[in-house]
Amino acid sequence: MCTPQSSEDGVRPRTGSDPKLTVALAMAALLSGCANMTDTPPGTALQDVEARYGKAGYSCPADQGKQRLIWTQQPYGQYAWTALVDENGKVDRIVPALTDARFRILDTGSWTPDQVRCKFGPPAEISTIGLPGSRQVVWSYRYKQDGVWNSLMYIYFGSDGARVTRRHAGPDPLFDPIEIERW
Fold this sequence. Notes:
Layout: H1 19-32, E1 44-45, H2 46-53, E2 58-61, E3 67-72, E4 80-85, E5 90-91, E6 95-96, H3 100-103, H4 113-120, E7 125-129, E8 136-145, E9 149-156, E10 166-171, H5 177-182
Antiparallel strand pairs: 1-5, 2-3, 3-4, 4-6, 7-8, 8-9, 9-10
């Protein structure tokens, strides 16, 4: 944070400011904060990506000797980005991890908790629901459903917690006005 320098007697010198310069600097600061990870060109060195966006919060081994990295805002944020990194430290394309289209992949095949975590990153919440005789493990990911709605994607792992059995989206109570009033 910049603080104006004080004179020896403790009184700050008065400086004039140019309104056009102030607006230009504010716009530059605003635009620099709008950098999108998905604009990173494929083949960018991981070191350069980390210098700009920080280290990924999660990583796991991927196919063909690659490493999957996930930059996530969970548990309270609604976005995460993922990329594969090759053995030379080059990042392929960076894509949003928490989208309806990406969650649909869970509808095919058999998914373990480790595979889900490697695809989407750590969930916002892990809970157990149901009656004592039919409890299920549920992972919840905060995201923007259809890019608009404050939602949670609920991923069910069945009573043994070993495989995905189903999934569905629902409203995120964190953004429910009634719940917010209770805080």
